[in-house]
Amino acid sequence: MRIQISKLTKVYRGKVRAIDGVDLDVPLGMYGLLGSNGAGKTTLMRILAGLLRPTSGRVVLGGHDITTPAGRVAVQRTLGYLPQDLGVYPDLTARRFLDYIALLKGLDARSARRRRIGELLEVVALGEHADRKLRGFSGGMLRRVGIAQALLADPRLLIVDEPTTGLDPEERIRFRTMLSQLAGDRTVLLSTHIVEDVAQTCRDLAVLAKGRLVFQGATGELVSQAAGRVWNLTTSGPAPAEGRIVAAVPEGAGTRYRLIAAAAPHPHAEPASPTLEDGYLALMEAAPC
User: What does pTM read for this prediction?
Assistant: First the structure.
């Protein structure tokens, strides 16, 4: 499902511009939305999910304008949404919780509903835990329940907001892999402030900063934002005064620094190949305040 956003703005009370004139075109497949906390990502996700009305602008999802009542209804039938904080009923089992959500989504045929729930519990690797109460689930397992509920109606668009926050490394990898597999025949919009999640799953992304779109394109294009600006320096002296320190690792009697700077920050600094994180940080330094 293609997403087309034109001149989108959201102004809250107090004239706070959470989204400020965003133009964005999201194709089929996995797409990353990157930005720091407070950049406007969640506001944009809630607008796309039909939970929040924009102040102005246009959003077309699969040919439906969600700024109109008819468009919102049409899109919500083909959309799955995993919010940053999914509320669950801790005394329900995973199977019963999904059954309850399926009924709310209009899946009334009992046999078809049970079959779909069973399939999804296997997809998210929770089949053997289907009849355990949710109060005993880890954070990663609850996120997987969240993905299952978002997939109940087999949506053409899946929106996930900060899905790996708080997960341990193994669960983060499992979750990222699952999202990539789900993107085969649908659009998956991944909103996160964790650069590594985008680096490992998305070929294309957009970056928000203070409600404004400051980048959209391929991950390689974002990496190039830091070309010629990344340096390694090992020293036993004080920390470099020039440039932005990205990493500092003790090494023998000194410290090995990774820095972003327009020019060599020290006579002994050596150029390094940029990563997506370097490109993102370089972009943020250049973004207008």
Answer: 0.88
